[in-house]
C-alpha cells in the first residue's frame, strides 16, 4: 500500500519495525532512521528478506533540515515518530515542509523542564489543516489504546461517561535491583513530577506518588497503584463530553520506589545542569548512561502487564460500570519480537495508528488524538496484531473521592 519512515531505533522502534514487516500488505517499504545508524542496520539485518523492503538512514531528529532531506529522499506516506518526545516538533515541522502525515506515541516535552502538555502540538492544528495532512498524537498504549478504549466505551457502552480511572500495572520482574522499562530519563521525569487529576473542570495537584491505593487486577492480583499525571488525561478531559473526573494510576514496587528516592535525594534524577570536569551535564543523563538499557530487558523479564480503563456513567438512564483492558505477557512478547511487554504495548499501537492513517480510515486534516476517530477499526486491529482486549461489566471500583477517604481514616 505504501511507505513509512520510522524515526528511532530503541525498544519501541524495534517492535514497530517487526509489526510493519508482519503487515507487509500495508507497509510495502519502510526506512528505519536514527542518530545511530548501526542500530537501524542491525534491525534490517534481522528482518530483511521478506515482502517489506527495508532501508536504513542516519538522521539527527533534532535537526529539522536533516529530517526534511531524509523525507524527500525516501518519499514516505507517513512518518512514525518513536524518537524522544523532545523531537516531536522538529519532526512535525519536517512533515509540514514535505507534505507527509505524522504519527507519534507521546506528547512533546521541552528538554529543560518536565512538562507533559499537548499545547505545543495542538498549536499545529491549523497548519496541518491547511496542508491537508493528518497528525495523529499519542498512538501508543497510554496514551493511545487507553483513549481508544474510552472512545469504544463512549460509542458502544454508555450514553454518558462520568468517571474514568486508567490503571497501568506491570507485574514483570527483570531481576535487576533497579531499572526502568522505557527510556530512563523520560520515565524518571514522569514519576518524580507532581501528580495531577481532573475533577469538575479543574486540575487538582498532588505531591509525587502521594496518593496510593491497592487494586486487584485480573491475571496479576492485588498491586499498589499510585496516582500520577499522564498526558491522555488532558486530551480525554477535553474530548469526552459530560466527564466529571479522570485519573491515572501506575504500579510500582517498594524496592523500585526506595531506589528512586535515594537517587532523588542525592540529586541523580535532577535535570538541572551541573559542572563536572569542565563540562556541563544533567545528572539524569549520567544516570541514564549507567542504568540497564530498557531494550536489553526482554530476555530477562517474566510476568505480565495489565493496562485498562475503569469507566462509570449512564446507559438508558441507569448507572453502569465497565472495565476494558489488555493483559500482555513479557515472555510471549520476547519470543515474538525480541522485546519486553512495555515496548510491545507501545509499538503495536504505533503501527496500527500509522496503518489507519495510511489506508484512510483515520485520515482528516489537522492535529488529532486517538479518541477523535472511530475506535472500531483500531479495536479490531488490537485483536489481530497481538494486543487482544478483554472486558468486565462488574469491575472492582476505586474510591471516587480520595480526600474524603483520608478524612474518614
From TrEMBL:
Residues 140-386 form the Saccharopine dehydrogenase-like C-terminal domain. Signal peptide: none annotated. InterPro entries: NAD(P)-bd_dom_sf, Sacchrp_dh-like_C, Sacchrp_dh_NADP-bd. Residues 5-136 form the Saccharopine dehydrogenase NADP binding domain. This is Saccharopine dehydrogenase. It comes from Lysinibacillus boronitolerans JCM 21713 = 10a = NBRC 103108. The lineage of its organism: Bacteria, Bacillati, Bacillota, Bacilli, Bacillales.
